[in-house]
Specification:
Structural class: mainly alpha
Number of helices: 7
Largest sheet: none
Shape: rod-shaped
CATH topology of the largest domain: Methane Monooxygenase Hydroxylase, Chain G, domain 1
CATH class of the largest domain: Mainly Alpha
Number of strands: 0
Mean pLDDT: 79
Distance between the termini: 102 Å
Low-confidence stretches: 1-36
Radius of gyration: 51 Å
């Protein structure tokens, strides 16, 4: 009986304990269920998976867009840097050719100033190479200098206008200098032909004087022939046979013209002095036109030399300034 009572007591106690453990187990499962579905971010696993997948996809896409955007910005910056290097270095590179050409201008001006014969002289033109810069795209220059460089946009825009202006001036100077030489060559050739044509007339007249002298019966006319021949012969007996047109005009033709004037003054009825005098005047006038034209062209090329170097140094100064200006950060590159 006692054993039975003890067994029942123990049975009742174990059941109570079992019920208590079961109740605790249920509570534990509720708090941290071992077999139940786990919650992620407070969502069921299938919803959480969709959310995580969506977030990862958007993140990867966004990262890809960012990398692509960043790459384009950096590539654009590199292109602008390369463009800037080409512009600056090409401007510096042209200094040698421009310096060489300005020296040739000076040499030509000096030789032309000393040229006493009516004839064109050769002139070698070395290309500036600056006109190659005109091939640069204006839009790219605006992007390079105005938009993507640090500093005030108005100041940068003025610098761009200065660079374009200087390049255009140098190009125009080069073109005009070539055209001016063509003008010089053609006009010098025309004057030379006129001189030779008129001098041939004078030469034929001189050669006819012995015959004229022998056949004339007019004393004053014979005296004119003799004086005219004497001036001509005296000049060539003392002068170099290769006398220049300037020397001929100053030392021979002017004296022959004086002889004509004196003969006409002593006897206005004489016709021969009046016949040859226009040729002498024409020769002197041709020489005068040549000297004025020659000196003008020489002065022009001397001025071209000075102006070319002046404009180039202004351009080079702008190039150095451009070289020292920093680009905007890559995030702001356009």
């Amino acid at each position: 009986m006692n054993d039975t009572m003890i067994y029942l007591h123990d049975t009742i106690g174990l059941k109570a304990i079992s019920d208590s453990l079961l109740h605790l187990s249920n509570k534990i499962e509720i708090i941290c269920p071992e077999n139940a579905e786990r919650l992620i971010f407070g969502l069921r696993p299938e919803l959480a998976g969709i959310l995580i997948s969506t977030i990862i996809t958007i993140s990867v896409f966004s990262l890809g867009v960012y990398i692509q955007w960043r790459g384009k910005k950096i590539d654009r910056l590199q292109v602008l840097k390369s463009y800037k290097t080409v512009l600056v270095e090409w401007i510096k590179l042209t200094e040698e050719t421009i310096t060489t050409q300005t020296k040739l201008y000076q040499k030509f001006a000096k030789e032309l100033k000393a040229q006493e014969n009516i004839m064109p002289i050769s002139f070698v033109h070395e290309p500036y190479l600056i006109n190659r810069l005109k091939e640069l795209n204006l839009r790219e220059l605006v992007d390079l200098i105005v938009i993507n460089h640090k500093g005030n946009k108005v100041t940068n825009a003025l610098s761009l206008l200065d660079i374009i202006s200087h390049i255009q001036k140098l190009t125009n100077i080069e073109i005009t200098a070539k055209e001016k030489y063509s003008e010089f060559f053609d006009y010098a050739k025309i004057l030379g032909e006129q001189w030779n044509s008129s001098f041939k007339i004078l030469d034929r007249y001189i050669k006819s004087l012995p015959t004229k002298t022998a056949h004339t019966e007019n004393k004053n006319e014979r005296l004119f022939y003799q004086r005219f021949s004497q001036v001509y012969n005296e000049y060539y007996s003392n002068a170099d046979k290769s006398s220049t047109s300037k020397t001929l005009a100053e030392k021979l033709i002017s004296k022959l013209e004086k002889t004509c004037n004196e003969s006409i003054k002593s006897d206005p009825s004489l016709t021969e002095p009046n016949n040859i005098s226009p040729i002498l005047v024409e020769l002197q006038f041709i020489e005068y036109r040549w000297s004025v034209f020659r000196d003008g062209i020489a002065e022009y090329y001397q001025n071209v030399s000075n102006k070319t170097m002046h404009v180039y140094f202004l351009l080079k100064e702008k190039a150095v300034q451009l070289e020292n200006i920093q680009f905007k950060t890559w995030t702001k590159i356009q």
